[in-house]
Amino acid sequence: MNKSEFLVGLQKQLELDHELELTTNLKELETWDSIADMVLISYVDRVAGMKINSHELVKITTVESLLEFINLK
Description:
about 70 residues; 4 helices
């Protein structure tokens, strides 16, 4: 999976009407809440095979930091 595919899938999972940019602050999205946290954790686990714990989740703020976490180019 490449970066574009990952972002399109994440957009769908979060039910966003707009495209995610590298600079998008996930926690500042209008629809961001604890359920969105769980959707993100589940999506990353499913498509990247990586677990995100609560300490790591706090550090993931932007789309870019998420991609760096999962090491997706």
